[in-house]
């Protein structure tokens, strides 16, 4: 059973999401929060698998609450998905850097929301390819001079290659076709790379790929 915490200051939004999620045989809403401070308290209390976190909330905004989750080693298994009204919300970029596993627009289709909740628990890519590439492009535009790539020393040559492909926004299937391997093999390489680098998910791998200099701005094809 996938346990979800809903954090949004609009009760109608929470009610709609709760009705949809609770109707699924493999998902349950473990709790709700109306502001970021309450969300952080309930994450620590309930230890959900996924938090659907609104970016704009009173007392403590979604970004600060997300950092509170992702900076806590005891909460390393909790995945945060940011909720936003606009697909290109100005805070989306910072949300990913804060450790969020991805983001969804609030008016997303029900099937997409359910797929996203299940996917993020598995550590798979949550963002659509188009959104991922726009996010990467934004990251590339803002990225600073890369630090020394000492953190990549444990990776094999193939794992570095796979990480670079994740960094430019390719899915497991696209990586498999590029490297002429099976999708399962591609997923295994991605998973091993994440474990070695201590990355929470693919979104963080993208950030690490740029920060380490493995991928440079202008590589989007």
In words, what does this structure look like?
This protein is an alpha/beta fold and 221 residues long. It has helices at 11-22, 36-46, 62-70, 92-97, 110-122, 129-142, 157-167, 172-179, 183-197, 202-211, and strands spanning 2-7, 27-33, 50-54, 79-84, 102-105.
Q: What is the topology?
A:
Elements: E1 2-7, H1 11-22, E2 27-33, H2 36-46, E3 50-54, H3 62-70, E4 79-84, H4 92-97, E5 102-105, H5 110-122, H6 129-142, H7 157-167, H8 172-179, H9 183-197, H10 202-211
Parallel strand pairs: 1-2, 1-3, 3-4, 4-5
Helix pairs in contact: 2-3, 7-9, 7-10, 8-9
Pfam family, one: Response_reg
Keywords: DNA-binding, Phosphoprotein, Transcription, Transcription regulation
Protein name: Response regulator transcription factor
Brief synopsis:
By secondary structure, this protein is of the alpha/beta class. The chain has ten helices and five strands, in the order E-H-E-H-E-H-E-H-E-H-H-H-H-H-H.
């Amino acid at each position: 059973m996938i346990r979800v915490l809903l954090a949004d200051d609009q009760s109608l939004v929470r009610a709609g999401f709760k009705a949809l999620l609770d109707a699924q045989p493999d998902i349950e809403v473990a709790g709700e929060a109306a502001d970021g401070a309450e969300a952080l308290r309930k994450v620590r209390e309930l230890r959900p698998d996924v938090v659907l976190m609104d970016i704009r909330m009173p007392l403590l905004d979604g970004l600060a609450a997300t950092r509170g989750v992702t900076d806590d080693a005891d909460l390393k298994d909790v995945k945060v998905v940011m909720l936003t009204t606009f697909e290109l919300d100005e805070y989306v970029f910072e949300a990913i850097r804060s450790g969020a596993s991805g983001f969804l627009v609030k008016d997303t289709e029900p099937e997409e929301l359910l797929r996203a909740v299940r996917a993020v628990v598995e550590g798979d890519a949550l963002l659509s390819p188009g959104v991922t590439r726009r996010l990467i492009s934004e990251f590339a535009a803002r990225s600073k001079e890369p630090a020394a790539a000492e953190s990549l020393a444990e990776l094999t040559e193939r794992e570095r290659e796979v990480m670079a492909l994740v960094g430019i926004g390719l899915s497991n299937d696209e990586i498999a076709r590029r490297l002429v391997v099976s999708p399962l093999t591609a997923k295994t390489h991605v998973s091993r790379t994440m474990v070695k680098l201590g990355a929470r998910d693919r979104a963080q791998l993208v950030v690490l790929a740029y920060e380490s200099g493995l991928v440079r701005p202008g590589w989007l094809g």
